[in-house]
Amino acid sequence: MKSFILWLLSHISHMNLRATPGRSLLGLVLVWFLCLSVGPALFSQSKRVTPEDFFTSGEAVLTGSNCFRLTTPNQWSSGGVWHKVPIDLKASFRMELKLMFGCDDIGGADGVVFVFMPYQGMEGRQGEGMGFSGLRPSLGIEIDTWENEHLFDPPEDHVAILRDGYVNHYYNLVGPNVIKNVEDCALHDLTVVWNHAEYELSVQLDGSTIISYTGDIVNEIFGGRSTVYWGVTAATGRYFNRQEICFDKIEFTMPLDALEFDLSTIEMLKRGKVMTLDEMKFNSGKIELLDRSLPDLHRVISFMKDNPHLDLAIEGHTDNVGSEENNQRLSQARAEAVAEYVIEHGIDADKIHIKGYGETYPTADNGSPDGREKNRRVDIYFFQPRS
Ligand SMILES: [Ca+2]
Ligand SMILES: [Ca+2]
Fold first, then answer.
1. Domain of residue 51, CATH code
2. How far is residue 319's CA from residue 316's CA, in Å, rounded to a whole number?
3. How confident is the model at residue 37 (pLDDT cuts 50, 70, 90)?
4. Which of 95, 106, 303, 360 lies 20 to 30 Å from 147, alpha-carbon distance?
5. How far is the CA of 301 from the centre of ligand 2 (A)?
6. Which domain holds residue 23?
């Protein structure tokens, strides 16, 4: 559907240049209608996480390919595992993990908290604090396995959504909700879903929704800051359990216009380095942009908006299938397709310089399908125009 819309957009923009006012009006109405029907452009990315994505605090240690022990089965143990890269609450996400709460139901403690907070490297209090108490500002999803009567804990294992490091249920956002015993030596599936459009945070344990909270977390808890770190903390006190976590999968649904190049790429681009847009590929003989090219295009657009003093050079290249002449035309048309998309998204056409190089600059062997795909590419670089 999206490629169809892009195709139509590119044809309509040609139409607007050449057609009568009546037809271009029809074009605009069509664009408006299509934009309404698809809603905001989104980009989904699903990622398996690896231990290198996290750092640990306290007594947490890596124990398997994707698992960490958070606490030892000893008194006053605590540990945390934190994702190194923050997430943006302006985008929706889904995280799948597995938690082990220990083997001792009657005498085991204290529980695990899934935490969002704007700072890295802080540790909350042990025991009933579960490594979360004292972290502020913060949002926490607790799975508490020990009843502390003065905190209004129910006697059963329970879940609640907490804020600002307060583990007392008098101050919680939602809960406490009683759940079945989880101190059974087994790994339990925990899924945390943030629906940015609905402001809804929901939590599933072993496939059932156990708690959800709807609220403007960014403004009400983090004072307008949407970029936060996330991690999991756990602790023991006078009573204890071995508590573990295994990470499985993180899935992000970013609005396209929230995408940016990473910092090292931005530095490289500012220095004028030529970059091949890895995802900017084309089907053989075709000029239409593929859906998977859009995230990189939006990174280019966002870079240009942040660096208005720089111009953009777009260079199209092809493989060696077909005649040289045809490839020359094709490479020019591909560079133009990229330019059109960027211009449609608010970049001044005067700042864009396009050139097609045909098949003259291959970067890979045209003898293999992989090599040919690599050669059907678009290179870009930014430069300071002469005034
Ligand atoms: Ca229990
Ligand atoms: Ca407790």
1. 2.60.120.200
2. 11
3. very low
4. 95
5. 49
6. 1-39
